[in-house]
């Protein structure tokens, strides 16, 4: 029976169970659909039992196996899932995971992702096993449309050996122009979806829309009908601010859009006002009062810190899709955190949520979290559940005593389960000035950064420079800081500035002066000097003199990566186009919910044992992101302008004929 749990062995998995084993890179065992023979264990990540290099050991409990390092993708068994059908799920216990990191997550103040960064994150989300990727809001800008199209053409067509391919979704308001843009973005995917919405609460209808309830229903129906008429067979509808909407009106509009062809009904607690009990009742009421074949979804904001609890309450009451983001990023206080919702269901779904399970492969959670953190510039609070720096840290003497005796005394999840491999004692490798390129490559693989070729060579050179200045070796956190320094500098290496050298003179005896040597996009090396109020200000002015991009520094922070005087410094900067100039439309960012337009900000990080060098690296990386974004948008706008001219000429010829 589906609710029965088995203690699967390493070399022979047990009976059918949604909580039977998934062996991931950490060799985490999750769910399988049927017993697997020993020879199938390579695909199931069971290399630890046949390879001395993995030396895994069983820790019991939930089929968790500890391995010494991150696995190769081909060694990770992907969780089985039912065949994808837009408006129904054959297994009533299966819960779809809808990730909106690339759309709602990017609405976070200060978060801007380039097209390449979005593609990288989307590929990691596919590894993670999310069912639906909401790739963006295509009508927002030409760059957003191109990013969605790029993800649809690539990630949306990359079919895994088990047949899995994510649904690629685009958001639109309930009007033809938005829906056309969304369809243009996602139609290239094997499984495209349009997600359209309109507000349904009294305050939104009266104050924002200035529409009557009857008009809102008609707009919603027309939007869904039009989306289906384009050939899209997978249409999701959201009644914005459902948490504050009249339930009877919700039943009415939801029944109407289902009849018009909606396949998923997403219920957003847009302002995070609901308590778990009332949100659960809302979902149960919709399930009981809205006829038709459809999947109920939840979208819970975190304004009161209840997004995860509300999402789980929705699942317990019949929702079979949860919308969430990596690290919980999003508008205002953020969204339901994917890692929290997914691991809650992974841990307790069988026992407490009527056998619920997802298709998430937990071993990719931590790598995804790191990528989103570095690309978006949105820091993760240390005590954040699942992926925070302190999530698997123990300082209390009582806790440490328990951990030394049995790690399960204070850890309900082994960190390896989510792809976090800790402790040099587990791998026997201390990285220092004598470490070679192969050792660094292995360490980076363990930490979730598989570098090759020129990227590895550049990282190795930087690592050696730091290692030669430090005693006691270079820690994991410092290696991560180095490898993510300047992460995502730009989609186009042809517009990348490279910082070669920095020298500063400062103190009480004269004016702070900085000299920088940089290689430009034309491969020409240039040198510039400038005076500032301090060494960092002087370095930034010298860089500005070479790059010639007018920007405002929005945020500047410096932190020590680890404790001690020899720690690396990690700098995070945020910049935007200078406000006293004519800012191109592409450099502005529209808020989906409020409609407000604001200048895009670009964040980046830098790391070095020298604070000034660290600061300069971060600043150059942010400038590269901004320049790359401006260039890609200019090309996209020019291309679309040509297409429009050609289309107009063809229309004139057709009319004349």
Description:
- The chain has 657 residues and is of the alpha/beta class.
- It has 17 helices and 18 strands.
- A hairpin with a 5-residue loop joins strand 12 and strand 13.
- The chain is globular.
- The relative contact order is 0.09.
Largest sheet: 8 strands, parallel, barrel
- Using the alpha-carbon principal axes, give the shape: globular
Number of strands: 18
Order of strands side by side in the largest beta sheet?
A: 3-4-5-6-7-8-9-10
Distance between the termini: 68 Å
Q: Indicate the low-confidence ranges by residue numbers.
A: 1-68, 424-429
Radius of gyration: 26 Å
User: Approximately what portion of the residues adopt beta-strand conformation?
Assistant: 15-25%
Structural class: alpha/beta
Query: What's the number of helices?
Result: 17
Q: Averaged pLDDT, please? A: 82
Core attributes:
657 residues, eight-stranded parallel β-barrel, 18 strands, 16% strand, globular, disordered N terminus
Fold blueprint:
Layout: E1 57-60, E2 64-66, E3 96-99, H1 115-128, E4 132-136, H2 142-153, E5 167-173, H3 176-186, E6 192-199, H4 202-209, H5 213-229, E7 235-240, H6 247-260, E8 264-269, H7 276-289, E9 295-300, H8 307-316, E10 321-324, H9 338-352, H10 365-376, H11 397-405, H12 424-427, H13 437-446, H14 453-467, H15 476-484, E11 498-505, E12 513-519, E13 525-531, H16 535-547, E14 551-560, E15 569-577, E16 588-590, E17 597-599, E18 601-608, H17 611-656
């Amino acid at each position: 029976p589906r609710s029965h749990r088995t203690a699967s062995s390493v070399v022979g998995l047990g009976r059918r169970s949604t909580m039977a084993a998934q062996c991931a890179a950490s060799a985490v065992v999750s769910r399988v659909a049927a017993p697997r023979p020993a020879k199938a264990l390579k695909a199931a990540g069971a290399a630890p039992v046949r390879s001395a290099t993995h030396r895994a050991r069983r820790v019991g409990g939930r089929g968790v196996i500890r391995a010494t390092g991150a696995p190769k993708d081909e060694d990770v068994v992907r969780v089985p899932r039912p065949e994808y059908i837009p408006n129904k799920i054959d297994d009533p216990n299966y819960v779809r995971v809808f990730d909106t990191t690339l759309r709602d997550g990017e609405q976070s103040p200060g978060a801007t992702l380039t097209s390449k960064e979005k593609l990288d994150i989307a590929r990691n989300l596919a590894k993670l096993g999310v069912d639906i990727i909401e790739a963006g809001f295509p009508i927002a800008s030409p760059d957003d449309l191109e990013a969605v199209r790029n993800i649809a053409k690539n990630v949306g067509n990359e079919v895994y050996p088990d047949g899995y391919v994510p649904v690629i979704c685009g958001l639109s308001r309930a009007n033809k122009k938005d829906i056309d843009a969304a369809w243009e973005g996602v139609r290239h995917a094997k499984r495209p979806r349009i997600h359209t919405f309109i507000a349904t609460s009294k305050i939104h209808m009266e104050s924002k829309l200035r529409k009557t309830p009857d008009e809102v229903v008609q707009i919603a129906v027309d939007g869904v009908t039009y989306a289906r008429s384009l050939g899209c067979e997978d249409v999701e509808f959201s009644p914005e601010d459902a948490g504050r909407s009249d339930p009877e009106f919700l039943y009415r509009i939801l029944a109407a859009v289902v009849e018009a062809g909606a396949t998923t009904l997403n219920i957003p607690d847009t302002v995070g006002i609901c308590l778990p009990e009332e949100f659960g009742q809302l979902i149960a009421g919709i399930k009981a009062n809205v006829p038709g074949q459809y999947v109920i979804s939840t979208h819970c904001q975190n304004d009161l810190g209840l997004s995860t609890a509300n999402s789980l309450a929705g699942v317990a009451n019949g929702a079979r899709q949860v919308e969430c983001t990596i690290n919980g990023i999003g508008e205002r206080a953020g969204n339901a955190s994917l890692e929290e919702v997914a691991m809650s269901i992974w841990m307790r779904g069988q026992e407490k949520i009527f056998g619920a399970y997802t298709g998430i492969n937990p071993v990719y959670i931590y790598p995804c979290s790191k990528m989103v953190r570095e690309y978006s510039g949105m820091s993760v609070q240390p005590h954040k559940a699942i992926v925070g720096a302190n999530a698997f840290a123990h300082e209390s003497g009582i806790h440490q005593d328990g951990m030394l005796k049995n790690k399960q005394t204070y850890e309900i999840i082994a960190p390896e389960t989510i792809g976090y491999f800790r402790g040099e004692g587990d791998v026997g490798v201390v990285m220092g000035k004598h470490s070679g390129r192969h050792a660094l490559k292995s360490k980076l693989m363990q930490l979730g950064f598989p570098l090759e070729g020129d990227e590895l060579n550049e990282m190795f050179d930087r690592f050696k420079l730091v290692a030669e200045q430090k005693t006691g070796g270079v820690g994991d956190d410092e290696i991560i800081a180095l490898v993510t320094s300047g992460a995502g500098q730009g989609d186009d290496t042809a517009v990348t500035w490279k910082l070669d050298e920095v020298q500063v003179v400062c103190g009480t005896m004269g004016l702070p002066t900085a000299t920088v040597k940089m290689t430009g996009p034309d491969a020409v090396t240039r040198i510039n000097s400038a005076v500032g109020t301090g060494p960092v200000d002087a370095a930034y002015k010298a860089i500005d003199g070479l790059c010639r991009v007018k920007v405002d520094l929005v945020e500047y922070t410096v932190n020590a990566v680890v404790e001690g005087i020899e720690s690396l410094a990690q700098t995070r900067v945020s910049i935007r186009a200078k406000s006293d100039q004519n800012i191109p439309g592409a450099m502005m960012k529209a808020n989906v919910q409020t409609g407000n337009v604001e200048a895009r900000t670009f964040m980046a990080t830098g790391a070095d044992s020298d604070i000034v060098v660290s600061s300069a690296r971060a600043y150059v990386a942010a400038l590269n992101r901004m320049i790359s974004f401006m260039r890609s948008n200019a090309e996209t706008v020019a291309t679309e302008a040509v297409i429009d001219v050609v289309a107009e000429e063809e229309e004139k010829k057709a009319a004349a004929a």
